[in-house]
Design brief:
heterodimer, A: mainly alpha, 4-stranded antiparallel beta sheet, 8 strands, elongated, B: alpha+beta, about 15% strand, UBQ-conjugating_enzyme/RWD (chain B)
């Protein structure tokens, strides 16, 4: 991977990882955590301070280049952000760059941790399903408004001894195993991943449409491979760091202390959706106080744009979707998975005695504040659930918060349908123009007739033409076309305006 | 094939260790996402004394997507059509990832106990059910005797 050099490539010395600035001195550490009460407005100040106070900023900068998409500034909404202005039309090159950026953005890195969890998901759900806004989610985790992504345990047995549990936790990987050869990408050439251009893999003689389709397929197959390489690079960095510490060569502030590991995993619970054992505290639904892990929470989203589910009237023929007004397309905010309350939101109460990682103390220096007796688990559990007096609704996080582009998506789908039906109308009307004998059988709905291009073509090709023209002259038809054109351009203008307003 | 998510493994185990009365669900040997299901007709319903075969499939996106459930045994019910497809909100728009195989099958069993002819899938059955409930229930009983005998 030319553009993704591993750390070892970079400096030939894995120990460098450990020396990377991040948790410089205890002095600046305490200032970062001391400032938290005032950092609510700019949650990343601690991060920035940390970066700013870095001793070897040049190294850090070069580090950021190859570990791009790290936490430099999760709130950044500048042009460089993968998630800026969802309304803008982008070239396919830009879109691909955004997808790659997103893939880099959801890599799990051991040195980007919050309270013992991470800023990116473990991988219980596939890459295609991780379409949330990673900048927003990272920033919410750093603000302690959303639980971090913890590495889950597949099973948990409360009879495990401290040593047994620690041994299991020590062996946990950063990320779930990948399916390296998914069926979807079977037989798709990916070429040299180091070269950005892969057009040489596509047959030159194919049609434009075929080219586009093949290009998209190859891009996705390549991204899948790249993502595996990127995450494996992070896994190796993590492993090397662990080995170095174990060999006693070096100290590493990013790796969790034994007490942290134990406190995390001795007090976890099973997420009712993925059934995995996750360190607590979990997020809780604001409506019914049910737990949900962050990895499952980022899966909860609005349904794709659809037409309203009316009560079906058995006496009426079912209307084909292609005949409906695209503006009727709708989506509703996600419901609570547990009690179906509309507009699902969660609330998270961070652990008071475990502020480690970003904006906290180094994970390696964490000391347990609970006595090691082990019988205090029950107290701890009851603390996890936010008490009603603690709930500050302004801190609640909704599914829309982490997918702010839902409205742009809805408008895009509406436009797509409108364009399709406009095309259909145009073909329909031009058929009438070209062939005055053209049957008007499909004409009832014109000029606002909505139908797929296919439908209209089928009508125009139908053999028997009942010559029941309704006395429409060419002029009338021309008027009709002009009107339709005006209507469409007005509508487009309207949509353009409403989308710019929303920016 | 991608490995089976822990959730599916645990659900399957728990179905075995803590079965639902009147319902069985067993995964296929060569596809652990495909279950063979039996549901006993609820007492007091026209389906009493019947044992109904169903198939249940967990799609790739389960639990974010609903399981696919279908009756294999012929049944006379306004919300179940000739192909065994079931009209049940939680299998479609009201699916939630907090639901499970267990809760889905319980809902199907409840649907047998209380048919809803006002939101039909099988129009002819629903019409019959609304116009002549006693007659429809009699037909349902006969079908149960004929096709779902234990």
């Amino acid at each position: 991977m030319g553009n993704v050099p591993t750390k070892l490539d970079q400096d030939g010395n894995p120990v460098e990882t450990v020396n990377r600035p991040g948790y410089p001195t205890s002095g600046s550490m305490s200032s970062a955590s001391g400032a938290t009460s005032t950092t609510d407005q700019s949650p990343n100040r601690g991060t920035r301070t940390r970066r700013a106070s870095s001793l070897v900023s040049t190294f850090l900068n070069s580090g950021n280049r190859y570990r791009s998409g790290s936490i430099q500034d999760p709130n950044a909404q500048g042009a460089a952000s993968a998630y800026s202005s969802p309304h803008k039309r982008r070239s396919s090159k830009e879109k691909e760059a955004i997808k790659e950026q997103h893939a880099r953005n959801i890599l799990v890195r051991y040195d980007e941790s919050v309270d013992g969890g991470f800023l990116a998901p473990y991988g219980s759900y596939g890459f295609d399903k991780l379409d949330y806004n990673a900048d927003v989610v990272k920033s919410l985790i750093i603000q302690r408004r959303l639980a971090p992504f913890y590495t889950p345990l597949q099973d948990f047995d409360s009879s495990w001894s401290r040593e047994e549990l620690l041994k299991i936790v020590e062996g946990l990987p950063l990320h779930a195993a990948f399916n390296e050869h998914p069926e979807e990408f079977e037989d798709i050439p990916t070429g040299d991943l180091n070269k950005p251009n892969f057009d040489y893999l596509i047959d030159r003689n194919c049609t434009k449409k075929e080219y586009r389709r093949t290009h998209a397929k190859i891009f996705r197959a390549r991204l899948h491979k790249k993502r595996i390489i990127w995450q494996e690079t992070e896994n190796e960095v993590f492993l090397e760091a662990k080995l170095d510490v174990r060999s006693g060569k070096v100290k590493n502030n990013y790796l969790p202390s034994e007490e942290l590991k134990y406190d995390l995993y001795a007090n976890g619970s099973e997420c009712p959706i993925c059934f995995l054992y996750i360190p607590g505290p979990l997020n809780y639904s604001t409506c019914c106080q049910q737990p949900i892990c962050t990895e499952c929470f980022v899966q909860i989203k609005r349904a794709d744009p659809h037409f309203p589910h009316d009560e079906v009237d058995p006496t009426q023929p079912v209307k084909d979707d292609s005949e409906k007004d695209p503006n009727l397309l709708t989506t509703e905010p996600a419901n609570c998975p547990y009690c179906a309350t509309t507009e699902f939101t969660i609330i998270y109460t961070p652990p008071k005695d475990r502020k480690v990682g970003i904006q906290g103390i180094p994970p390696a220096t964490y000391k347990s504040s609970v006595p090691q007796a082990g019988d205090d688990n029950q107290d701890k559990k009851s603390e996890d659930k936010p008490e009603s007096k603690d709930i500050n609704m302004s801190n609640a996080v909704s599914s829309d918060d982490i997918r702010p582009d839902w409205e742009a998506k809805l408008n895009k789908e509406r436009q797509r349908l409108a364009r399709r039906s406009a095309n259909a109308t145009a073909i329909h009307v031009s058929n009438q123009l070209v062939n005055p004998e053209y049957a008007v059988s499909g004409n009832q709905g014109s000029p606002t007739r909505r139908g797929s291009a296919q439908n209209s073509r089928a009508t125009s090709n139908s053999g028997s033409r009942r010559s029941q023209r309704q006395g429409k002259s060419i002029e009338e038809l021309e008027n009709q076309m002009v009107q339709e054109a005006i209507r469409l351009s007005l509508k487009e203008e309207e949509q353009r305006k409403s989308s710019t307003d929303k920016k | 094939m991608a490995s089976l998510p822990k959730r599916i493994i645990k659900e399957t185990e728990r179905l075995v260790t803590d079965p639902v009365p009147g319902i069985t669900a067993e995964p296929h040997d060569d596809n652990l996402r495909y279950f063979q299901v039996t549901i006993e007709g609820p007492a007091g319903s026209p389906y009493e004394e019947g044992l109904f075969q169903l198939e249940l499939y967990l799609p790739d996106d389960y639990p974010m997507e609903a399981p696919k459930v279908r009756f294999l045994t012929k049944i006379y019910h306004p919300n179940i059509d000739r192909l065994g497809r079931i009209c049940l909100d939680i299998l479609k728009t009201n699916w939630s990832p907090a639901l499970q195989i267990r809760t889905v099958l319980l809902s199907v069993q409840a649907l047998l106990a209380s048919p809803n002819p006002n939101d039909p899938l099988a129009n002819d059955v629903a019409e019959d059910w609304i116009k002549n409930e006693q007659g429809a229930k009699q037909t349902a009983r006969e079908w149960t005797q004929r096709y779902a005998k234990k």
